[in-house]
Design brief:
Blueprint (H helix, E strand, L loop, with lengths): L9 H17 L9 H15 L3 H18 L6 H14 L2 H21 L3 H8 L2 H6 L1
Helix pairs in contact: 1-2, 2-3, 2-4, 3-4, 4-5
């Protein structure tokens, strides 16, 4: 996802913020450990970055990463991980940036090692999501 998915559209940014707030209100009453709250925080991090609010972006990204860890999700959602990492890199503490970098490297390694067919692995890693992760 390119930075700027909001594209300067204030109404879209407000919709993302409202929807993320609603999701975060619903998450505690839903069964299981779905990653919706983390995804809402990752979306907020993207909106905050778009608005130049690095502090807000880092805070939302940290919440997204904590929610992923707390839920013990086996399927690391790159739709959450990549925007959260982007926000952490924009202004998070260097030790948190290093931790996130290590997590991204581990994720990349798992994906690369888990894809036996080399042509599929190369196509995925050179595709839009793979390029962001690399």
């Amino acid at each position: 996802m390119a930075a700027g998915f909001v594209g300067g559209d204030d109404s879209l940014a407000e919709l993302v913020e409202r929807t993320a707030g609603q999701v975060k209100e619903l998450v505690p009453v839903l069964p299981g450990h779905a990653a919706w709250g983390a995804q809402a925080d990752a979306a907020l991090a993207t909106v905050f970055l778009e608005r130049g609010d690095t502090e807000g972006a880092v805070s939302a990204a940290g919440a997204a990463l904590q929610a992923l860890q707390a839920g013990l999700h086996e399927d690391t959602s790159l739709e959450i991980l990549l925007p959260a990492a982007r926000a952490i890199y924009a202004g998070g503490p260097s030790e948190v940036q290093e931790s996130v970098r290590g997590h991204l490297r581990t994720t990349l390694s798992r994906i690369a090692q888990g894809t036996a067919d080399e042509s599929i692995r190369v196509r995925w890693l050179t595709g839009p999501v793979g390029r962001q992760l690399v």
